[in-house]
Design goal:
The protein has 353 residues and is α+β, with helices and mostly antiparallel strands. The chain contains nine helices and 16 strands. It binds adenosine monophosphate and magnesium ion.
Length: 353
Protein backbone atom coordinates (compact mmCIF):
# COMPACT_ATOMS: atom_id res chain seq x y z
CA UNK A 1 0.00 0.00 0.00
CA UNK A 2 2.81 2.33 1.01
CA UNK A 3 4.53 1.59 -2.26
CA UNK A 4 1.43 2.36 -4.34
CA UNK A 5 1.08 5.69 -2.54
CA UNK A 6 4.62 6.61 -3.43
CA UNK A 7 4.10 5.66 -7.09
CA UNK A 8 0.82 7.54 -7.50
CA UNK A 9 2.26 11.01 -8.26
CA UNK A 10 4.53 9.52 -10.96
CA UNK A 11 1.60 7.62 -12.44
CA UNK A 12 -0.49 10.77 -12.46
CA UNK A 13 2.23 12.77 -14.25
CA UNK A 14 2.54 10.02 -16.83
CA UNK A 15 -1.22 9.95 -17.44
CA UNK A 16 -1.33 13.74 -17.67
CA UNK A 17 1.56 13.72 -20.14
CA UNK A 18 -0.12 11.09 -22.32
CA UNK A 19 -3.32 13.10 -22.12
CA UNK A 20 -1.56 16.28 -23.29
CA UNK A 21 0.63 14.83 -26.07
CA UNK A 22 -0.83 15.54 -29.52
CA UNK A 23 -2.48 12.74 -31.45
CA UNK A 24 -0.49 11.47 -34.44
CA UNK A 25 -1.63 12.99 -37.74
CA UNK A 26 -1.44 11.51 -41.22
CA UNK A 27 0.55 13.72 -43.59
CA UNK A 28 0.42 13.15 -47.36
CA UNK A 29 2.80 15.08 -49.59
CA UNK A 30 3.08 15.14 -53.37
CA UNK A 31 6.07 16.67 -55.14
CA UNK A 32 6.19 16.78 -58.94
CA UNK A 33 9.04 17.77 -61.23
CA UNK A 34 9.76 17.53 -64.92
CA UNK A 35 12.62 15.06 -65.36
CA UNK A 36 13.79 12.59 -68.00
CA UNK A 37 11.34 14.12 -70.45
CA UNK A 38 8.32 13.28 -68.31
CA UNK A 39 6.48 14.30 -65.15
CA UNK A 40 8.00 12.58 -62.14
CA UNK A 41 6.13 12.61 -58.85
CA UNK A 42 6.91 11.37 -55.38
CA UNK A 43 3.97 10.93 -53.01
CA UNK A 44 4.70 10.10 -49.38
CA UNK A 45 2.49 9.28 -46.42
CA UNK A 46 3.49 9.39 -42.77
CA UNK A 47 1.73 9.24 -39.43
CA UNK A 48 3.46 11.69 -37.11
CA UNK A 49 3.00 13.74 -33.96
CA UNK A 50 5.27 16.43 -35.43
CA UNK A 51 3.78 17.22 -38.84
CA UNK A 52 5.72 20.44 -39.42
CA UNK A 53 9.02 18.84 -38.60
CA UNK A 54 8.15 15.87 -40.83
CA UNK A 55 7.21 18.14 -43.75
CA UNK A 56 10.62 19.84 -43.56
CA UNK A 57 12.46 16.56 -43.29
CA UNK A 58 10.41 15.02 -46.12
CA UNK A 59 11.09 17.96 -48.44
CA UNK A 60 14.83 17.55 -47.87
CA UNK A 61 14.80 13.77 -48.50
CA UNK A 62 12.52 14.00 -51.54
CA UNK A 63 14.79 16.75 -52.89
CA UNK A 64 17.70 14.32 -52.56
CA UNK A 65 15.71 11.63 -54.40
CA UNK A 66 15.01 14.02 -57.30
CA UNK A 67 18.68 15.04 -57.38
CA UNK A 68 19.61 11.36 -57.60
CA UNK A 69 17.31 10.90 -60.62
CA UNK A 70 18.85 13.98 -62.25
CA UNK A 71 22.29 12.46 -61.63
CA UNK A 72 21.24 9.22 -63.35
CA UNK A 73 19.83 11.22 -66.27
CA UNK A 74 23.13 13.12 -66.55
CA UNK A 75 24.84 9.78 -67.25
CA UNK A 76 22.24 7.81 -69.22
CA UNK A 77 20.47 10.37 -71.41
CA UNK A 78 21.06 10.46 -75.15
CA UNK A 79 19.19 13.80 -75.42
CA UNK A 80 20.95 15.84 -72.74
CA UNK A 81 24.21 17.49 -73.66
CA UNK A 82 27.58 16.14 -72.55
CA UNK A 83 26.38 12.87 -70.99
CA UNK A 84 28.66 9.80 -71.30
CA UNK A 85 25.99 8.24 -73.54
CA UNK A 86 26.00 11.23 -75.86
CA UNK A 87 29.78 11.20 -75.85
CA UNK A 88 29.85 7.56 -76.97
CA UNK A 89 27.27 8.28 -79.70
CA UNK A 90 29.33 11.18 -81.02
CA UNK A 91 32.50 9.05 -80.98
CA UNK A 92 33.93 6.78 -83.67
CA UNK A 93 32.42 3.44 -84.71
CA UNK A 94 34.45 0.23 -84.41
CA UNK A 95 36.59 1.62 -81.54
CA UNK A 96 36.37 0.84 -77.83
CA UNK A 97 35.41 3.94 -75.86
CA UNK A 98 35.69 4.29 -72.05
CA UNK A 99 32.46 4.58 -70.07
CA UNK A 100 31.64 4.99 -66.34
CA UNK A 101 31.12 1.77 -64.40
CA UNK A 102 27.52 2.68 -63.52
CA UNK A 103 26.63 2.94 -67.22
CA UNK A 104 28.46 -0.34 -67.86
CA UNK A 105 26.41 -2.00 -65.10
CA UNK A 106 23.09 -0.94 -66.62
CA UNK A 107 24.26 -1.89 -70.12
CA UNK A 108 25.22 -5.33 -68.83
CA UNK A 109 21.69 -5.84 -67.41
CA UNK A 110 20.19 -4.65 -70.69
CA UNK A 111 22.46 -6.79 -72.87
CA UNK A 112 21.35 -9.89 -70.99
CA UNK A 113 17.74 -9.03 -71.89
CA UNK A 114 18.84 -8.42 -75.49
CA UNK A 115 20.40 -11.90 -75.54
CA UNK A 116 17.41 -13.65 -73.99
CA UNK A 117 14.91 -11.81 -76.19
CA UNK A 118 16.81 -12.51 -79.42
CA UNK A 119 17.36 -8.81 -79.96
CA UNK A 120 13.79 -7.57 -79.36
CA UNK A 121 15.24 -5.36 -76.60
CA UNK A 122 17.89 -3.24 -78.25
CA UNK A 123 19.76 -0.35 -76.61
CA UNK A 124 21.50 0.47 -79.90
CA UNK A 125 18.54 2.00 -81.71
CA UNK A 126 19.41 5.69 -81.23
CA UNK A 127 19.90 6.57 -84.93
CA UNK A 128 16.50 5.04 -85.68
CA UNK A 129 14.63 6.44 -82.65
CA UNK A 130 16.09 9.84 -83.40
CA UNK A 131 14.96 9.64 -87.06
CA UNK A 132 11.42 8.69 -85.97
CA UNK A 133 11.60 11.64 -83.56
CA UNK A 134 9.06 10.61 -80.90
CA UNK A 135 11.24 11.89 -78.05
CA UNK A 136 11.93 15.32 -79.58
CA UNK A 137 10.63 18.43 -77.82
CA UNK A 138 8.31 18.82 -80.83
CA UNK A 139 7.44 15.13 -81.29
CA UNK A 140 7.11 13.74 -84.81
CA UNK A 141 3.68 13.95 -86.42
CA UNK A 142 4.40 12.22 -89.74
CA UNK A 143 6.53 9.46 -91.24
CA UNK A 144 10.28 10.02 -91.53
CA UNK A 145 12.17 9.98 -94.82
CA UNK A 146 11.79 6.36 -95.94
CA UNK A 147 15.07 6.20 -97.92
CA UNK A 148 16.95 7.41 -94.85
CA UNK A 149 15.08 4.92 -92.70
CA UNK A 150 15.97 2.04 -95.03
CA UNK A 151 19.65 2.99 -95.00
CA UNK A 152 19.71 3.06 -91.19
CA UNK A 153 17.90 -0.26 -90.97
CA UNK A 154 20.45 -1.80 -93.34
CA UNK A 155 23.31 -0.44 -91.25
CA UNK A 156 21.74 -1.45 -87.97
CA UNK A 157 22.45 -4.92 -86.76
CA UNK A 158 21.16 -6.33 -83.50
CA UNK A 159 24.14 -7.09 -81.31
CA UNK A 160 26.01 -4.06 -82.64
CA UNK A 161 27.09 -3.18 -79.10
CA UNK A 162 30.16 -4.74 -77.51
CA UNK A 163 30.88 -4.15 -73.84
CA UNK A 164 34.25 -4.96 -72.26
CA UNK A 165 35.42 -4.58 -68.67
CA UNK A 166 38.70 -5.58 -67.11
CA UNK A 167 39.49 -6.37 -63.50
CA UNK A 168 40.63 -2.80 -62.78
CA UNK A 169 37.12 -1.62 -63.51
CA UNK A 170 37.94 -0.02 -66.86
CA UNK A 171 34.78 -0.38 -68.85
CA UNK A 172 34.58 0.25 -72.57
CA UNK A 173 31.96 0.03 -75.25
CA UNK A 174 32.23 -0.35 -78.98
CA UNK A 175 29.49 0.63 -81.38
CA UNK A 176 30.03 -1.58 -84.35
CA UNK A 177 28.02 0.11 -87.07
CA UNK A 178 26.96 3.54 -88.28
CA UNK A 179 23.34 2.50 -87.70
CA UNK A 180 23.98 1.84 -84.01
CA UNK A 181 23.95 4.38 -81.17
CA UNK A 182 22.99 4.19 -77.51
CA UNK A 183 19.37 4.87 -76.48
CA UNK A 184 18.57 3.70 -72.97
CA UNK A 185 15.05 5.12 -73.10
CA UNK A 186 13.50 1.74 -72.30
CA UNK A 187 15.49 1.02 -69.13
CA UNK A 188 17.06 4.19 -67.67
CA UNK A 189 13.85 5.62 -66.20
CA UNK A 190 13.32 2.40 -64.27
CA UNK A 191 16.90 2.47 -63.05
CA UNK A 192 16.50 6.12 -61.97
CA UNK A 193 13.46 5.08 -59.90
CA UNK A 194 15.48 2.27 -58.27
CA UNK A 195 18.14 4.79 -57.29
CA UNK A 196 15.62 7.34 -55.99
CA UNK A 197 13.88 4.59 -53.99
CA UNK A 198 17.21 3.74 -52.35
CA UNK A 199 17.54 7.36 -51.24
CA UNK A 200 14.05 7.27 -49.68
CA UNK A 201 14.60 3.85 -48.09
CA UNK A 202 17.95 4.83 -46.57
CA UNK A 203 16.47 8.01 -45.12
CA UNK A 204 13.68 6.01 -43.45
CA UNK A 205 10.74 7.07 -45.65
CA UNK A 206 8.52 4.02 -45.41
CA UNK A 207 5.38 4.84 -47.40
CA UNK A 208 5.73 6.27 -50.89
CA UNK A 209 4.91 6.07 -54.57
CA UNK A 210 7.36 7.24 -57.22
CA UNK A 211 5.85 7.68 -60.69
CA UNK A 212 7.76 8.60 -63.84
CA UNK A 213 5.67 8.29 -67.00
CA UNK A 214 4.69 4.63 -67.20
CA UNK A 215 7.11 3.49 -64.50
CA UNK A 216 6.28 3.34 -60.80
CA UNK A 217 7.43 2.03 -57.46
CA UNK A 218 5.14 1.64 -54.45
CA UNK A 219 6.37 1.04 -50.91
CA UNK A 220 4.54 0.69 -47.61
CA UNK A 221 0.93 1.78 -47.37
CA UNK A 222 -1.39 4.62 -46.30
CA UNK A 223 -1.85 3.54 -42.72
CA UNK A 224 -4.12 0.52 -42.74
CA UNK A 225 -5.00 0.96 -46.44
CA UNK A 226 -2.81 -0.21 -49.33
CA UNK A 227 -1.77 2.24 -52.00
CA UNK A 228 -4.25 2.04 -54.88
CA UNK A 229 -3.02 2.87 -58.35
CA UNK A 230 -4.79 2.66 -61.69
CA UNK A 231 -3.42 1.45 -65.03
CA UNK A 232 -4.59 3.70 -67.85
CA UNK A 233 -6.83 2.30 -70.57
CA UNK A 234 -4.78 2.27 -73.82
CA UNK A 235 -7.60 3.74 -75.92
CA UNK A 236 -9.44 5.89 -73.37
CA UNK A 237 -6.96 8.25 -71.71
CA UNK A 238 -9.44 9.40 -69.06
CA UNK A 239 -10.22 5.83 -67.99
CA UNK A 240 -8.54 3.26 -65.80
CA UNK A 241 -8.70 -0.39 -66.93
CA UNK A 242 -7.10 -2.08 -63.90
CA UNK A 243 -6.18 -1.28 -60.30
CA UNK A 244 -3.13 -2.34 -58.35
CA UNK A 245 -3.23 -2.51 -54.55
CA UNK A 246 0.04 -4.04 -53.37
CA UNK A 247 0.68 -5.42 -49.89
CA UNK A 248 4.45 -5.16 -50.30
CA UNK A 249 6.93 -3.05 -52.23
CA UNK A 250 6.15 -3.25 -55.92
CA UNK A 251 8.05 -2.16 -59.05
CA UNK A 252 5.95 -1.85 -62.20
CA UNK A 253 6.34 -0.44 -65.71
CA UNK A 254 3.84 -0.02 -68.51
CA UNK A 255 4.66 0.25 -72.22
CA UNK A 256 2.00 1.10 -74.75
CA UNK A 257 1.39 2.38 -78.26
CA UNK A 258 -0.59 5.31 -76.82
CA UNK A 259 2.26 6.99 -74.99
CA UNK A 260 4.03 8.68 -77.92
CA UNK A 261 2.42 8.28 -81.31
CA UNK A 262 0.89 9.93 -84.36
CA UNK A 263 -1.74 8.67 -86.74
CA UNK A 264 -1.16 9.01 -90.48
CA UNK A 265 -3.61 7.71 -93.07
CA UNK A 266 -5.47 5.90 -90.32
CA UNK A 267 -2.35 4.02 -89.12
CA UNK A 268 -0.91 4.48 -85.65
CA UNK A 269 2.89 4.94 -85.50
CA UNK A 270 4.42 4.81 -82.01
CA UNK A 271 7.73 5.00 -80.17
CA UNK A 272 8.53 1.31 -79.57
CA UNK A 273 10.47 -0.01 -82.54
CA UNK A 274 10.96 -3.53 -83.76
CA UNK A 275 14.77 -3.68 -84.14
CA UNK A 276 14.42 -6.19 -86.98
CA UNK A 277 12.43 -3.78 -89.19
CA UNK A 278 13.15 -0.32 -87.75
CA UNK A 279 9.37 0.33 -87.77
CA UNK A 280 7.00 0.59 -84.79
CA UNK A 281 6.45 -2.91 -83.41
CA UNK A 282 3.18 -4.60 -84.35
CA UNK A 283 2.98 -7.66 -82.18
CA UNK A 284 -0.70 -7.59 -81.30
CA UNK A 285 -0.02 -6.04 -77.88
CA UNK A 286 -1.18 -2.45 -77.41
CA UNK A 287 -0.29 -2.14 -73.70
CA UNK A 288 1.71 -4.24 -71.29
CA UNK A 289 2.49 -3.78 -67.60
CA UNK A 290 5.31 -5.75 -66.02
CA UNK A 291 5.97 -6.19 -62.30
CA UNK A 292 9.52 -7.18 -61.39
CA UNK A 293 11.93 -7.25 -58.42
CA UNK A 294 13.27 -3.84 -59.50
CA UNK A 295 12.21 -1.00 -61.79
CA UNK A 296 15.08 -1.26 -64.30
CA UNK A 297 13.99 -4.84 -65.05
CA UNK A 298 10.27 -3.96 -65.10
CA UNK A 299 10.99 -1.09 -67.52
CA UNK A 300 13.16 -3.13 -69.89
CA UNK A 301 10.82 -6.12 -69.86
CA UNK A 302 7.66 -4.13 -70.54
CA UNK A 303 9.26 -2.73 -73.71
CA UNK A 304 10.57 -6.18 -74.66
CA UNK A 305 7.19 -7.89 -74.23
CA UNK A 306 5.57 -5.17 -76.30
CA UNK A 307 7.93 -6.00 -79.18
CA UNK A 308 7.71 -9.79 -78.79
CA UNK A 309 3.94 -10.14 -78.51
CA UNK A 310 1.92 -12.28 -76.13
CA UNK A 311 3.21 -15.76 -76.86
CA UNK A 312 6.96 -15.13 -77.10
CA UNK A 313 6.72 -12.40 -74.44
CA UNK A 314 5.13 -14.64 -71.84
CA UNK A 315 7.63 -17.40 -72.67
CA UNK A 316 10.47 -14.92 -72.08
CA UNK A 317 8.95 -13.83 -68.76
CA UNK A 318 9.35 -17.36 -67.43
CA UNK A 319 13.12 -16.89 -67.54
CA UNK A 320 12.79 -14.01 -65.06
CA UNK A 321 11.82 -15.16 -61.55
CA UNK A 322 9.47 -12.81 -59.72
CA UNK A 323 8.26 -11.10 -62.91
CA UNK A 324 4.56 -10.89 -63.84
CA UNK A 325 2.66 -9.25 -66.68
CA UNK A 326 -0.72 -7.83 -67.70
CA UNK A 327 -1.26 -7.59 -71.44
CA UNK A 328 -3.91 -5.86 -73.51
CA UNK A 329 -4.18 -7.10 -77.07
CA UNK A 330 -5.36 -5.31 -80.20
CA UNK A 331 -8.61 -7.28 -80.24
CA UNK A 332 -9.45 -6.04 -76.74
CA UNK A 333 -8.57 -9.22 -74.83
CA UNK A 334 -6.69 -8.95 -71.55
CA UNK A 335 -4.18 -11.55 -70.33
CA UNK A 336 -2.64 -11.67 -66.87
CA UNK A 337 -0.01 -13.99 -65.37
CA UNK A 338 -1.04 -15.72 -62.15
CA UNK A 339 1.10 -13.65 -59.79
CA UNK A 340 0.31 -10.20 -61.23
CA UNK A 341 -0.79 -7.93 -58.38
CA UNK A 342 -3.89 -6.13 -59.66
CA UNK A 343 -7.42 -6.53 -60.90
CA UNK A 344 -9.11 -5.68 -64.18
CA UNK A 345 -11.90 -3.11 -63.99
CA UNK A 346 -14.65 -4.19 -66.32
CA UNK A 347 -16.07 -1.81 -67.39
CA UNK A 348 -13.19 0.68 -67.08
CA UNK A 349 -13.67 3.48 -64.55
CA UNK A 350 -13.02 7.21 -64.68
CA UNK A 351 -9.59 8.26 -63.39
CA UNK A 352 -9.56 10.00 -60.03
CA UNK A 353 -6.68 12.42 -59.58
P1 LIG B 1 9.21 2.35 -72.96
O1 LIG B 1 8.35 3.56 -73.03
O2 LIG B 1 9.83 2.07 -71.63
O3 LIG B 1 8.57 1.15 -73.55
O4 LIG B 1 10.51 2.65 -73.85
C1 LIG B 1 10.41 3.13 -75.16
C2 LIG B 1 11.65 3.91 -75.47
O5 LIG B 1 12.77 3.02 -75.55
C3 LIG B 1 11.58 4.61 -76.81
O6 LIG B 1 11.18 5.95 -76.68
C4 LIG B 1 13.00 4.48 -77.32
O7 LIG B 1 13.79 5.50 -76.76
C5 LIG B 1 13.47 3.17 -76.78
N1 LIG B 1 13.14 1.99 -77.60
C6 LIG B 1 12.24 1.89 -78.63
N2 LIG B 1 12.20 0.63 -79.11
C7 LIG B 1 13.05 -0.10 -78.34
C8 LIG B 1 13.44 -1.48 -78.34
N3 LIG B 1 12.95 -2.35 -79.21
N4 LIG B 1 14.36 -1.86 -77.42
C9 LIG B 1 14.88 -0.99 -76.53
N5 LIG B 1 14.57 0.31 -76.51
C10 LIG B 1 13.67 0.75 -77.39
MG1 LIG C 1 10.55 0.32 -70.81
Amino acid sequence: MMRLHRCLPGLLILLLWIGCSPAPQPVTRNTTQMQMGTLVSIVTWELTVQPDQWREQEARIVGDAFREMARVESIMSSHKNATPVQHVNAGPRGTLQPIPSELAGLLRTGLEITRLSNGAFDMGLQPLTSLWGFSRDDPASHLPDIAQLNTLVEQHHAGGLTLTGDTEGEYRIRLDHAGTGLDLGAIAKGYAIDQAAQVLDRAGVRNYIITAGGDMRMAGAKGNRSWRVGIQHPREPAMVMAVVEPHATLAMATSGDYERFFIQDGIRYHHILDPKTGWPARSGIIAVSVQAPNNALADALSTTLFVLGAEAGLALLEKFPGCEAYLVLEDGTHKKTAGFVGQRLDPPQKKVQ
